[in-house]
Amino acid sequence: MRRTLPAFSKEYKLNGEGIDLISETLSNALEQFGMEKRNRIRIRLSFEESLLRLRDKFGKDATVVLSMGNSLGRPFIQLSLEGDVFNPLSKREVDLEDWSGALLTAVGLYPQYSYTRGRNILRLNLPMRRINPAFKILIALAVGIVLGMLITTCCSDTQQAALTEVVLQPIYDLWIRILSVLSGPVIFFMVLTTVLNTGSIEEEGGSSAKVAIRYFVFSAVSGLIAIIVCGLFKGSDLVIGQTLGVDASKYLDHILHVVPEDILTPILDTNTPQILLFAFVLGNGLVIIGTRVAGLVSLVRQMNMVGLLMTDWVSRCVPYFAAGLICYEILWHETSLLKNLWLIMVLALVVSLICIAAAVIIVAQRKQVNARLLVSKVWPSFAMAVRSGGLDEGYGETEAACISDLGIEKHYVQVSLPHGMVLYMPINVIGTLILTIFAAAQFGVEISPGWLIIAWLLAIVMFVATPPVPGANLLAYIMIFDFLGVPDVVLIDAMIFEVLFGIFASAGNQTMLLMDLIMQSDKIGLLDRQLLNKDRRNKKR
Question: What's the confidence (pLDDT) of residue 465?
Fold first, then answer.
């Protein structure tokens, strides 16, 4: 059932009574909306803190307007106050939002600040409850297969060719154009924002470089395992196109051309390495300059939020395009990869489970905790991530599990959890590499050692820099496929794989992250080992 908010707008004074009334109204509205309890508390507290800061700035006689309703089909809550520019979400007025707020804003758990027509505005776009995306994509797959079989059975070859040319081919071309036009700029602003948010870790006393390198290395190891497994399964089918010397020369030329000639060409041409390099360099430059470019940083984050909204729209379109595109594959007799998609899925799941199990066992041994107990503590958040198919419903459960079950210090969790969810996605790296290698082998793409290295690096960097929001991975796929010479038609099967495997991947990434948080929090003395070893069932008694 679709969740909505009734239209509401009312003025309140910023005194104690007014803030209490706003808080009560918000709490009741979110409860009726059906939001999970911990997420309701998070949102209510973030608004309460913002209202207190607004009162300190503008005084208790100032008037704030609380509005609720639905815009473009998405429910929202908004506070607006007339006056000078003042961002209540920032620790300092020069910052436009807390660094961890980017991810939480994207999934509807954190408000966003803007200043429009003389009014300070805090707006929260609430997550909409949807049918599990895996269920929708399976329906689309079934519909596409049935349509394709009916058309091939009931229509002549001439009729099939006409239907494909007039209807299905334009739909396919439209879908590819949508992904192509969005992938460059959206990925650019995602990577740029990730670099900016990572740089802000220094303000919390941590080392952004060490954190990023650690996640990069762990993802690299996971990707290497995936490549080795693909070699064992598909070694005889790989088309080795060049000698090592020629191959090295070819990819050395690619590396030397990673520096773009100008700023716009990489984005317009969707040159993946150049986009990534430019975003990383520009992001680090903005971090070094600091508060002097606060306005530009704000613009970048606003553009990133627009990009995240676009990726959400793309993810909603996937099931509707999938049925027609599967039918297109059937009529064009391009179903070889689709028929083997189950094998790719199983292989990716097995490799991912092995990596997750290894991480759990290593943590259990090093921290002297029972592995079964550790699994029982992370299982509820894992299961919720799989059931919901996203971050919005399970984030509060995961944060609570880190603090009350795993014994990790609260502030460390609040800083590291959203950051890790953006940077640490080793399971996505595994799935992407296995699908890419199988697809390349299936379509006769020349796979050389250099090709594998480039695929490995692209997958790691893409998923270190791409936030785990719906649709973002599909844009990453088109950039990886384009650079590696994998045919665009593979994107049809990648849509199905991304949705089905992506649900497990988000839960698996989360579990791997929790294992890392246990290890890192213990190193700096922020882990309660007694709580970590305590059985939750005994605690309840």
Answer: 60
Distance CA 330, CA 230 (A): 26
The one-letter amino acid at 198: T
108's tokens: 């509807």
> Taking Cα atoms as reference points, which of 167, 172, 72 lies closest to residue 126?
72
**Which residues make beta-bridge pairs with 112?**
123
Spatial distance between the Cα atoms of 393 and 76, rounded to a whole number of angstroms: 16
The answer to whether 352 and 504 have CB atoms below 8 angstroms apart is yes
The whole-angstrom separation of Cα 434 and Cα 346 is 11
Q: What are phi and psi of 489, to 5 degrees?
A: -60, -25
- Distance of alpha carbon 7 from alpha carbon 70, whole angstroms: 7
Beta strand 112-116 with 63-71: parallel, antiparallel or unpaired? unpaired
Q: Each residue of 401-460: pLDDT tens digit?
A: 888 888 898 878 877 787 777 778 899 999 999 999 999 988 888 888 888 888 898 888
87 token code pair: 């961002």
The dihedral built from the CA positions of residue 215, 218, 220 and 223, taken in this order, carries a sign that is negative
Q: Which amino acid is at 142?
A: A
118: region left, alpha or beta (phi > 0 left; psi from -120 to 50 alpha) = left
Q: Residue 201 corresponds to which tokens in the numbers above?
A: 């870790």
Residue 68, CB half-sphere, CA atoms under 13 Å: how many? 16
Query: Which run of H or of E encompasses 441?
Result: helix 426-442
What tokens does 492 get? 């049809």
In angstroms, the Cα distances linking 12 to 16, 25, 251 are: 10, 11, 63
Please tell me what DSSP assigns to residue 405: I
Residue corresponding to tokens 């508060």:
291
Alpha helices in 200-293 (DSSP H): 208-234, 244-256, 265-268, 272-289
Contact present, 488 and 497 (Cβ < 8 Å): no
The residue count for the chain: 541
CA distance 378 to 391: 15
Give the pTM.
0.77
Dist. CA 86–CA 14, nearest whole Å? 15
Q: How far apart are the first and last CA of the chain?
A: 37
